[in-house]
TrEMBL record:
GO molecular function per UniProt: GTPase activator activity
Swiss-Prot/TrEMBL keywords: GTPase activation
InterPro entries documented for this protein: Rap/Ran-GAP_sf, Rap/Ran_GAP_dom, Tuberin/Ral-act_asu
Domain Rap-GAP: 121-224
Keyword Ubl conjugation annotated: no
Protein name, as recorded: Rap-GAP domain-containing protein
Single GO cellular component term: nucleus
Keyword Zinc carried by entry: no
One BP annotation, GO: regulation of small GTPase mediated signal transduction
SUPFAM superfamilies given in the database record: Rap/Ran-GAP
Amino acid sequence: MTRRKAKCVNMWLRKLASRPRKASCIESGIKGTIEDPFEKLPQLPRTLEADPIDCSDMYFFIQQNRRLATTSPLRRHSKPAKSSSSHAATEEKYILWRSLAADLRLFPGTRQIPQSFSRDVRHLDQTYSREVHKVAVIYVAKGQEDKVSVLSNSFGSDAFNEFVSHLGWRVEIGRQHHGYNGGLPSGAVTPYYASADTEIVFHVSTMLDGSLSVFALTTRSVFT
């Protein structure tokens, strides 16, 4: 008899476990009234009604004590996120935490300042936001062959001057010029070109007042 009761209990529990799970608070009706979950308590099997432990009074008490219905706005429950998206969200939170902890120097490694920190900061301040170039433009007159005479030219031909005028904007190196100076001294006038990611300064030999020393220090001459 005892084994039979135990078998009935097991079957009853398996039957309850096989039922689909429902939320404890189910919203129904037009006004969104929340149903009482105690109204759907599972009934005991008839074979257990003669159980030596009488629980009918407690069961009757639970069924008679009805809760007051409450209303709440209807909510749309979104579908559960996929495992991949939840994993990505976890990784993102972990990376954000690591970044915050590193910024606050909570890790021992971030508390140590390297010896080259000051030098790196100084180099960072000197780093340009755009790629910079300097290009030498040399005028060679007819019959000139030596380096000194070529770099000493203070004026060029009309064709050369027209070519130089199309290289870029004519700027004067100094406080009013906020771009790349290409190593030219203050007061020098030179063609300058800039785009979103590039700056170019043209070192024109005829625009350096024929100064061989200035041109030699600021450019690397290439003869072709």
